Amino acid sequence: MLVLWIAVVVLVAWVVRHETNEIFDSGLKETAQRILPLADAQLSPGHKTIFLDPVPHDEYLSYQVVNAKKEVLLRSHNAPENAYDVPLDAGLHERGGQVFCVEGNAENSLFVVIAESAGHRTSTIKDTLIFLTLPLIVLIPFTGVLVWWSVRRAQESIFSLGAELTARSSHDLHPVNNNILPRELISLGEAINSLLYRLQIALESERNFSANSAHELRTPIAAALAQLDVLKTDLHGDSLSRAEEAKLMLKKLENMTVKLLQLARAESGVALNLIPVELNGIMKMLVREFEIRKASRINFECDESEVWIKGDVDAVGIAIQNLLENAMKYATPNSMVEILLSSNGVLEIQNDCDPVPSDKIGLIRQRFGRVDASQSGSGIGLSIVETIVSQCNGSLQIKSPCYTNHRGFSVTVCFETTNKDVGLC
């Protein structure tokens, strides 16, 4: 727009200059032709130079009436006493930036020389250009602000759509609000909603399948374990050892079904029900349970004060239980599992074990990812923990080695702390 406006100003300046020259040239000729007959009638042979306009005032034009010898017979108050240095030829002449018009009578005995003020035409064109350019100085910034405001206003709906899509997760796939979109983007919003709907159906089908499969497996597994216990009373020798192996495999299968149920609960968004949860009490209960049930060696350090975090009590319990199970399972035999809970909601669990290679850290955070496939375990414990922690607006960090002797494995969970009465009625 700026370039276009400048081009228009240049074009207008050229037209104004051309037209101004024509008008001024015509005005000079008309003025000379008016003065010549008056001067010819008034002057007589031997007439002395007089002033026809004795009162000084500002004029753009000055004139002289001269004879063939360039003797000044008449002149305006602002004309010099000596004749203008122009040839006495009828027409327009330019000298030193001034334009002169010469008109003579039929006998070429009397001439009128009209002089235009130096720079008068340039000043006129310059003033015209200034008044053409001044609006540009105001209009261009105003137009820039107007365009910026208009574009930003048009983009608000796009930004709102982007913000809504950014906030979506596998637990929040409700349709976007098409009412905030301009008419041109409604079809895009409808396509996005159709995609979200299909994605929601697929995710729900996957979760329902995992949950239902795990739930349906628990009953026959429990029945098979009971039958094996009865059968073992009638077996001896190799048959008894094979029955023990079968029972061990069923135990692993039972553990896998429990993990799948926990994963299904975590994926269903159970931890999104953020209410105040007292973490210190949950930790003490779980530590005491593991010490009794698994005869584990645990060193639990915490403040006596309560630590309230945002979360769901069942989901937080599932996450911590999985962390403790992993710490016990992979710790060096007879080593101590160290647990530290700080008042700002940071929970750190460490155990002594062979360090996990750095390239395997990302693997064990994935579902069914394990450092050594030959080891026991479902491979989904950390995935369950990370899903629940993220739903509680927390973070999970893994470090290995964590001790100065280049051994050990450490998991640090940072929960979002809150007050006891926040969110409670």
Descriptive account of the structure:
It is a single chain. With 425 residues, the protein is α+β, with helices and mostly antiparallel strands. It folds into 3 domains: 123 residues; 82 residues, Helix Hairpins; 144 residues, 2-Layer Sandwich (Heat Shock Protein 90), CATH 3.30.565. 51% of the residues lie in helices and 16% in strands. The strands form 3 sheets. It has a 6-stranded mixed sheet, with helices on one face. A 5-stranded mixed sheet has the order 8-10-11-13-12. Helix 3 packs antiparallel against helix 4.
Indicate the low-confidence ranges by residue numbers. none
- Helix and strand composition category: alpha+beta
Terminal-residue CA separation: 61 Å
- Overall domain count: 3
Helix content: 40-55%
**Main sheet characteristics:** 6 strands, mixed
Shape: rod-shaped
Architecture of the largest domain, CATH level 2? 2-Layer Sandwich
CATH class designation of the largest domain: Alpha Beta
Strand order of the largest sheet: 1-3-2-6-5-4
Question: How many β-strand runs?
Answer: 13
Percentage of residues in DSSP E strands: 15-25%
CATH fold label of the largest domain: Heat Shock Protein 90
In N-to-C order, the SSE pattern is: HEEEEEEHHHEHEEHEEHHEE
Going by CATH, the homologous superfamily of the largest domain would be Histidine kinase-like ATPase, C-terminal domain
What is the average of the pLDDT values? 80
Number of helices: 8
Radius of gyration over C-alpha positions, nearest whole angstrom:
50 Å
